[in-house]
């Protein structure tokens, strides 16, 4: 049994599904150097796009599409590529401060880390309820109940056999491994994540901004990162707050900021990449545009959701270009 995925009409700026991403990356890039770092369980390529800059030591990465049920992260990564390629986003709008920040860094973009997870979810959850998204995030067991992803459990689900499911959702890769949750801090069972880690080891990145979506705008500090990185996240928050406020957009408090922060009892991709590739890691949780709770209001437009992600990226690049991550990496790992 297969579940038909609803096709929902979206504007051009919301370039979020697997086929559109593939088409964009194979036909629209002229400045960026695209490589395939590996393939998903079901054989879909995982792309890395590089924008070299010989005038800076600051090497940063943006990752979209870790979770398949978070399409805005993919759309925002492609809008970022559009800015780099065309000077405008996919809605034709200029972002002069972001373009100036892009000029100061050597950038790597992974628009869609988990294409198998993206392929089982609709192109948008805009103006839908969070419970609809939960079905696509988790997937369905054969009896129609949710795959028990257990987002808040201390003993969460790391793996669910796709043979026991109608489909496994966007939290998983095609083989049934939770894409952002590890049993080990040395490697990932998800081939997409491991392929990216293998590629990143040689890139000397200073930091990664991992784009996610849970309904609200806020930055997540990787709680398992040591103290030198906490100030990087706080600096991001200091700079981002007035920009979001100036646009009339909500921005939550820095999540995971405590002294000392308490890490979860298992491993996320953040700590895997931090320990194996010696870099900083921040995650930004953007909006989905849900209905159903006062907290989800006002309902943003799809472009406003993209614009919020691009603001998060801009501040990340500025903090990186000003040396915050380089200093934290040196304090933690010593000179390269
Ligand atoms: Zn996510």
Structure description:
There is one protein chain. By secondary structure, this protein is an alpha/beta fold. The protein has one domain: Zn peptidases (Aminopeptidase, 3-Layer(aba) Sandwich). Helix content is 34%, strand content 15%. It contains ten helices and nine strands. Strands 1-2-4-3-7-9-8 form a seven-stranded mixed beta sheet, with helices on both faces. A two-stranded antiparallel ribbon has the order 5-6. α3 runs parallel beside α9 (302-321) and α7 (230-246) packs across α9 (302-321). The radius of gyration is 18 Å and the shape is globular. The termini are far apart. The mean pLDDT is 94. Zinc ion binds at residues 66-67, 70, 212.
What is the mean predicted local confidence, pLDDT? Answer: 94
User: How are strands sequenced across the largest beta sheet?
Assistant: 1-2-4-3-7-9-8
- Count of the domains: 1
Estimated helix fraction: 25-40%
> Given the C-alpha coordinates, what overall shape results?
globular
The end-to-end span amounts to 52 Å
Query: What share of the residues does DSSP label as strand, in percent?
Result: 5-15%
Summarize the structure.
With 336 residues, this protein is an alpha/beta fold. Helix content is 34%, strand content 15%. The mean pLDDT is 94.
Features:
binds zinc ion; two-stranded antiparallel sheet; Aminopeptidase; 15% strand; 34% helix; 10 helices; seven-stranded mixed beta sheet; globular; alpha/beta; 336 residues
